[in-house]
Design goal:
Aspartate Aminotransferase, domain 1, alpha+beta, 383 residues, elongated, six-stranded antiparallel beta sheet
Length: 383
């Protein structure tokens, strides 16, 4: 029994794309912390918050962050006045080796702050409370009159009923940021050329963004549920139908081009999750060299790239290839690099428009030079 592929409905694909283009989805302003890979982890957030809370640090922002903390605590009717800042500590070890994220001390209070981003509120809060009380009782005579304030800094500003009953209070990142920004705006105005003002602004933008990372509006959910089938069909068409046909066309042209001792090997894949690639090489090579067609989706000015890799490279092989390619190197204006501990040399050619016949001709031309290098020059150069 032969299975017949159902025809693809291109009108549905176009409608799907038009729907996506018209979709209003949740977005956020990119900040410096989005560039790294650990920006949304709790430890870096805690360390930076500690740095900015301490007026004595080198940021020259004074007590802007601490005043913001005092303000949000007062507005939430937790305590009307925290007093004057004395110190802040991070990763404070309790009697049993557990760690308190932030411990702020003033002449009136000891503030325990637990910073939560995505984890559940299942820390040993009773142990934190015991530590705070012991710190007050074992401190100086002045410390004995201090009040223990216990805060959970989290996305929604809520704590469980059990924690609330035990005297813990929830504050959202957005609440804290709003109160800090009120004070910080004046500080920034008074000293606009302080480099730390930009960094502080980016940090606050990052804290605001923690909430929006999980925001999904109703339109986005509807788009997913109503169009997932069409998206699956479109994805299947691109990766399992169209790209294989492009690969087969180029493979056929390569095989018919009369290249020396050439048996075309084709391998399909994706780079950066969704950008289709097709790798072409000769089954008679044993070096890992290849030519890659890379369809570009992330740059509107680029249609595709052709990347050429010389495996087990050496300076002699690379220079020989440059001599072989000659004018083509100047025509394509390729960008070169080394990778995988300098075992591969690569060159990439960028194209703004896609023409299948021209693409195939370019790959054939490049493959002719690479095949010549692998079969005729490599054996003598590596002896």
């Amino acid at each position: 029994m032969t299975l017949v592929q159902a025809p693809y409905d291109f009108d549905k694909f176009k409608t799907l794309i038009d729907k996506f283009r018209g979709l209003e989805f949740t977005d956020e302003e990119l900040n410096l912390f989005d560039v790294g890979t650990r920006g949304h982890f709790e430890n870096p957030t805690t360390e930076l918050l500690s740095f900015f809370l301490d007026p004595s640090k080198s940021h020259d922002l004074g007590d802007s962050f601490f005043i913001g903390l005092k303000s949000v605590v007062a507005e939430n009717n937790i305590l009307s006045d925290l007093g004057t800042f004395e110190s802040v500590e991070t990763e404070v070890s309790t009697q049993n080796g557990k760690r308190i994220d932030l411990l702020v001390e003033t002449e009136k209070v000891i503030i325990i702050i637990e910073c939560k981003i995505y984890h559940h509120q299942n820390n040993p809060f009773d142990e934190y409370t015991a530590f705070g009380n012991k710190r007050i009782n074992n401190g100086s005579e002045d410390s004995n009159s201090k009040t223990l304030v216990k805060l959970v800094l989290c996305l929604n500003g809520n704590v469980s009923a059990d924690l609330a009953e035990d005297g813990w209070h929830g504050i959202s990142y957005n609440e804290l940021v709003d109160h800090i920004e009120t004070r910080l705006s004046k500080t920034m105005f008074d000293n606009p050329y302080n480099k730390w003002t930009l960094f502080a602004r980016e940090f606050l933008l990052h804290l605001k963004g923690l909430n929006t990372m999980t925001d999904i509006n109703a339109n986005e959910i509807s788009f997913l549920t109503e169009n997932l089938n069409e998206f699956a069909q479109l994805s299947d068409y691109i990766y399992n139908n169209l790209m294989p046909k492009i690969g087969a066309k180029i493979s056929s042209d390569l095989s018919a081009s009369g290249l020396q001792n050439f048996e075309c090997k084709v391998k399909h894949g994706k780079w950066y999750y969704y950008e289709p690639v097709i790798k072409f090489s000769n089954l008679n090579w044993t070096t890992g060299s290849d030519i890659v067609l890379w369809m570009k989706a992330s740059d509107h000015d680029i249609s595709h790239k052709i990347n050429l890799h010389i495996g087990k490279q050496s300076d002699e092989l690379v220079e020989q290839f440059k001599d072989l390619i000659g004018d083509a190197l100047l025509k394509f204006k390729g960008e070169t690099w080394y990778e995988i501990n300098n075992t591969y040399w690569g060159i990439s050619f960028t194209f703004k428009a896609f023409d299948l016949e021209e693409l195939s001709a370019n790959i054939i031309e490049l493959m002719g030079h690479l095949n010549n290098l692998e079969l005729n020059y490599r054996p003598t150069l590596v002896e």
